[in-house]
Amino acid sequence: MTQNPSPTVLDGMASRMGNVPGRWGWLAAAIWLFYLSQPLSHIAERQHGVVEVLGFLTVFLFAASYLAFFGLMRQSAANGLLPRWQRIVYLLVMLTLCLLMIPTAGQTALTGLVYISSVTMMLMDLRFAVTIVGLLLAAAEISMRVVPGWTDDGSYGFAIFLGALAVFGMRRAIQRSIELSAARKDMAELAVQEERNRFARDLHDILGHSLTVITVKAELAGKLIEANPGRAAAEVADVESLARAALADVRAAVAGYRELSLAGELVSARAALQAAAIKADLPTTVDEVPEANRELFAWVVREGITNVVRHSGAKRCTIRITATQIEVLDDGKGPTPGGGASGHGLIGLRERADAAGASLQVGQNSGGGFRLAVKAGAVRMAS
After folding, report:
1. Is the whole-model pTM more than 0.90?
2. Hey, what domains does the chain have and what are their CATH numbers?
3. Where is the Signal transduction histidine kinase subgroup 3 dimerisation and phosphoacceptor domain (predicted)?
4. Is the dihedral of CA 145, 150, 155, 159 positive or negative?
5. Taking the CA of residue 247 as centre, how many other CA atoms within 13 Å lie in the half-sphere pointing to its CB?
6. Which residues of 198-209 are buried (b: 16+ CB within 10 A; e: fewer)?
7. Is the CB of residue 290 less than 8 Å from the CB of residue 323?
8. For 292-306, what is each residue's pLDDT tens digit?
């Protein structure tokens, strides 16, 4: 079954479960029944009898069928869309009651066509509704010209057109509301996905660095356990301390808040390089680095040292820091063929740099080995 190109009022209500018209919402619609006073007045002017009583009854049944539409709105919003054939039957019932008013109400019974055209615009898809409204408009104009005793004042045709036009505006508003709700839902899903990616990236950065250092220290402790038990015990103690720190970082990440310290990352980097028997040439102060750049630079230190310890095979590692730039250099094997920022860690670091308005560079160190650099952008420098 194909979807309607222009949603009806019932479609809009059903697509947003919970936005069901209030139990007494029909009272607002009942105000428009005032115009049925015309056929009622015309019937009341006749000599009272059984026919006139039936006329009054027909008008009241027609009014009840109009108000019943708002019950259909509640049912549709709560239980799903009504089948098309049921909507057509409902409109045929209203049209039949309108025709039954003619013997007693005369020309004023055409007032019912205004209600029918409005309900049609609400119930049916746009193309079908416009066709029906056109037929009702033509029927009203023709009947006023051909039925003896009826006058052609054009008011009924104009009222049918205005009623249908007003409901068309309502349809457009509902369509825009549905599209806006769908867009908001898509944006919320994208935000959730982005948060999942951020969380996965943080866990990768935290555990990747910590477990790398733990592995190196555990291997060193295994080698020293016989030759130097005291040193091995110290390395095992460091492993325990690193494991506890990693656990604390994971808990902080799960709690949704974790701020890296550039000075703290440099201290951790020195310990990791020492454990991997890599000579460290690191800055002793970060005072010249603006506060706005420190967290990003801390991530660069963490990711850079993780890669040096894990992949480089280097003997020496150097970190250079200025107010707007940080470099992590080693004398190891250098970048893999093809270069570029590959791997989850470097991809995550590039995303952080982009978000901070900074540029990331990955490539060959001028003296051989690997170079990882991040330069803060103009926004960062200004801050």
Report:
1. no
2. 9-186 (no CATH), 278-383 (3.30.565.10)
3. 195-259
4. negative
5. 6
6. eeebbebbbebb
7. yes
8. 888 889 989 988 888
pLDDT score of 328: 93
Report in angstroms the alpha-carbon separations of 339 from 238, 354, 363, 366, 370.
34, 19, 6, 15, 10
**CA distances (Å), origin 322, targets 280, 283, 290:** 18, 10, 10
Question: Chain-wide mean pLDDT for the chain?
Answer: 79
- On the question of pLDDT at 66 being above 50, the answer is yes
- The 10s digit of each residue's pLDDT in 111-141 is 889 889 988 888 888 888 899 999 999 988 8
User: For the residues of 240-294, what is the DSSP string, one character each?
Assistant: HHHHHHHHHHHHHHHTT-----HHHHHHHHHHHHHHTT-EEE--S--TTS-HHHH
- Token readout for 298 is 């801390």
Structural contact between residues 67 and 26, judged by C-beta atoms closer than 8 angstroms:
yes
Model confidence pLDDT, tens digit, residues 243-278? 777 777 766 666 555 567 788 888 888 888 888 888
Alpha-carbon dihedral sign for residues 340, 341, 344, 348: negative
Please give the C-alpha separations between residue 30 and each of 55, 64, 139, 141, 188, in angstroms, as whole numbers.
20, 10, 26, 27, 39
